[in-house]
Here is the input.
Amino acid sequence: MSKNWNLKSHILDHSATTVNNLPDDFDIKDEKNTHFTFSIDISQLIINHKCDNQQDIDKVMNDFLGDLKIHSYLFTESHGRGRKPITRSLDLTNTLIAYHNSASDAINSKNYSVQPHFHILVPGRLKNKDGKSTKLGKGYTHLNKLINEVAMKHNLVFNIDEQVRYEKDKSLKDSATSLTWFLKRSSDAYFTQKIDDKTILKAVDSFQKHYEKTGNLQYYIKGMRDLHERLKRLDLNLYNQDGVNIKDEYVIPLLESQHQEIKVLQSGDAEAIRKLLKDRNNKIARALLEYSYGFDNIVIDELQSRGLYLEKLDKNVIKDLHINIEKKVSKKDKYAKTLNYHIKQDIENVLNYATNEKHFKELMQKLGYQDIKMKAKTINASRQRVGFSFTNPHNNKKVVIYYNNLNMNYSHLKKRFMENSKSKKLKIPHLTYKNSKLKNYIPVENKPVTFQNKVFKRLYQFDSSADLTGFYIDESSKEMRSKGTLIQDKGCKLTIAKQNSEDMQRNIKILLDMAMAKGWDLNKLGISGSSEFRQAVKDEIENINHKKQDTNEEFKYSKDKLKEDIGRQGSKSLEFMSVQ
Here is the structure.
């Protein structure tokens, strides 16, 4: 590696804004020092923060930095069973923090324009503002959370907190980062040595295979361009597996999904382009947006150098557009969204009352677990209960549950049965599917994650089954507006004041979600409006009832009963006024 390369100098020399509070006795050679980096994409800043130029971006980043340098993150440390956890504080008072942009990092990023990013250099023995020793956390957990708390305040999502859809995509990023850092830090002699012993060729082959799996153009081009320029400067040959000399050129193999993305961008269809920009995986669309705002972009530059030209996007394309970026979820939070978690909560509830296995099944059926059948397995020459199967009323699919997957066993159940059978004060509450945890489970892939869905949930404490993209929700009046649609919540009356005919089914779903959130009996709603509207509402209610059908009479509705009950609950009603 280059003997002259110095991390601290690199951070300081290429910084646009620096906060250097490293202690006087800081030793750059201390192996316990930590160098931490994180970045954000320009497209996010253009869309969500209306940044038109570098000055706008610098303002947002410097505002963030101003809060980051003074923020404290509190965490607890366990010191053994029975001992009270200790609360500690982490802050960046005694560190070096630097903000880099393309202008400041021009020497380091001469082959491409870099995204806004930060460097944090942390001493091996870190002390907080109170002079007490503190920790970054295992895997930098505490540092990540400190940064995230400040980022949330500024409505920013940095790369360290954005959910990577596929683990293989993360592996390409790591591979690209490793390759580009090696190219920056290695001396010419060391680089030449690694060319000669085929180390770089192996790294490039692996890197290209990662790209073919992920299609992440930015990381691929970043690594390959750095390598290409280094080979040209040193006049070194490096042939890939296809016999192409990377010194002369490197190939960018576009995937089918990327060809389709380019077709949409070339079409000029504003609505289709907006949809592309909402999906974080469409990296060519994001790159074109940045290029359209005057930022150099490595992806667009490479495509154009190969004769593939894309017109700049009209700025009206992103008018009123907001992108919702999926953030990483902790293992604990992920588990809380699983079917196993919801089922375990129901089992634990029933185990407060069940006196035997038959009673257990009866109570579980009341919570919506249809067609329960206990499962047994031969273990050590004896038959033992290992779980049960049931039909999920949400989708009428069979589900098999094993106790060991819930960190339970049948001995645990039998013990609770025995305890309950001896209790004389046991009072069983009214158990229904409506108050079960199973009812609240929504498969992750079916959960809308739009910003407006979050607003809806905040207002009604209910997850809407509809995708509310494109809506504006007025939280004070509870009016929902989108192009051609106006939905009003008037307390005991829910109204579609205006809608396009093609949106009727979606709007009915929204109305019924609002009604269910209010606890209304869908079978006793008063419905007024056109015959088409009334029938569509009845059909949707019947569909909802079918999904929720269980052994409880509360959810057993026949088509005849549905016709009889509709309209009786006049104080709770849906109203349809006009179609455009």
Remarks:
- Confidence is low (pLDDT under 50) at residues 549-570.
- Residues 194 and 200 are 6 Å apart (CA to CA).
- The first strand starts at residue 17 and ends at 20.
